[in-house]
Amino acid sequence: MNTLPDLLCLSHLRWDFVYQRPQHLMSRAARDRRVYYVEDPMFGTREAHLQVRREGNVTVVQPQLPPGLPDEVAEAHGRRLLQTFLRQEGVAAPLAWVYTPMQLPLLDGLATSAVVYDCMDELANFRYAPPQLRGRERQLFARADVVFTGGQRLYEAKREQHPRVCAFPSSVDVAHFAQARRDLPDPADQRDLPRPRLGFYGVIDERLDTALIGELARRHPQWQIVLLGPVVKIAPETLPRSANLHYLGMKSYTELPGYLAHWDVALLPFAINEATEFISPTKTPEYLAAGVPVVSTPIRDVERPYGEQGLVSIARDVDEFGAAVADLLGQNHAPRQRRADALLAQGSWDRTWEAMQAALVARPPLAARTGRLGQRGWTGGDD
């Protein structure tokens, strides 16, 4: 008999958005327990209700609320709807797994077996971040039993704010992306593009150095630059345009190896700004698992360990970026790939999930409790 508590995940990312850390971890959680994945609310309905759909052992819950509600009223509606639904589902004292501090009020008055803050980004540094986000995060630190960070740089920023912080950098499903090393069909929307091809996939937003991409395309018209992903928080008309720049839209996780199989170099062309100071791009090990050489701007969690180990080329401006790409296009990548494979073999999402569970079990004992914002879950020393 399964005695694991149900898991209640509060996320700012839509389940059907770019497949990344929350989806990887919650899919693994759902192997042996029910998972309730609660998205940010949508506003526009006449009456408040929950939109619920089942995807195997994952139940995706999206509050639908009337427009124009004051924040406190909207939060009260969401909390009432969610907690009523959880009672109807027979959910008692779930493990709360929080990605966004803004959803913390949903836990007010709810009995939980434990609270995990899986801090995958410094959300307060993102464009259009709510002004109350930093205060909510302080409340979440006071409520959380354990804090996980999505990278080493983020760990360094958070480790003094909670007595138990563990770094769990981005992992990878090697078998999935290693499909790109086989002779997969070239997807129809890039099939007719000449080589060499440079590629990027992910969210296209303020974190991307669009000026770098535009200038790289201008200086090297013989290179075809493919960008996959949704455009978010920036106006599409502000993106650079040229005959060798190709915006092919969002692709599913399943489709990505097919695109990677026909790229010559993979790109991490991130801007160096507040929004990227703490990022740990999941696509770094994914590119490497696919067997595609990588050029990145100097993102700290890419430089360490991938740049330091010579697995990713680091470029600080468009001149270095172009030179690095040209160098990689003429290289034999087999030695680098062997070293990359050895590093990737040390980690996987399965191992990360198991290690997270071990870290949670190792915390000081805590009985299920009814929490109020600002209460401390437990006190204890560092690991």
UniProtKB/TrEMBL annotation:
PANTHER family: GLYCOSYLTRANSFERASE
Lineage: Bacteria, Thermotogati, Deinococcota, Deinococci, Deinococcales
Designated name of the protein: Glycosyltransferase family 1 protein
Pfam families, per the entry: Glyco_trans_1_4
